[in-house]
Amino acid sequence: MSKKYAIVVDKKRCIGCSSCAVACKLENNIPDQIWYKKVRTIGGMQPLTPAGVYGDCTMTFEPWSCNHCDNAPCVEVCPTGATFKDEETGIVMQDIETCIGCGSCLTACPYEGVRTLLEDEPMWRVDFPVGAVEAPAHIAGKVEKCNMCAHRIAKGDVPACVEGCPARAMFFGDLNDPESKVSELLATREYYVLQPEAGTNPNVYYLV
Fold it and tell me: Is the N or the C terminus of the chain less surrounded, counting Cβ atoms within 10 Å?
């Protein structure tokens, strides 16, 4: 049976430190111009600021990236098949070689900012590559996004963002396995997904 990989974020544990975003950037040798994962503050108008008034404030965090949707509109509109859903894992992949940089996937995706068109030649903070040798290449004129660290999963590891979370707020697993940790969490905790009205059936879940 094919798998249905998902990431579950426990918002009660997430501290908004962005370690997941940094771990992702290092693992995938991502250029300065791009972040596959970001962490946004659910609170005030600025990052790391609460909503409400003194004595009655609220602030939580949402790590977010590609949602690896079951009904991925990016896959439907890609004219070359560069964006495709892997049948074995359910991960929405991006073939950098086949991508022509047309931007159709960016327009179709309802989750703004989870993919980026690398318009210029990639630039890095250091002059040597970091991260995994198997990580995707970075080429000007191509669209990039999270692939759930498919190269790590193939070796039996978890995505870098999950491994790099110091608060242990992120979980990875197969939703087609009822005994997996992610299945257990979604069966016992309240949760939500981003923009359910879009009908994409995303595979990133947030426990509340």
Answer: N
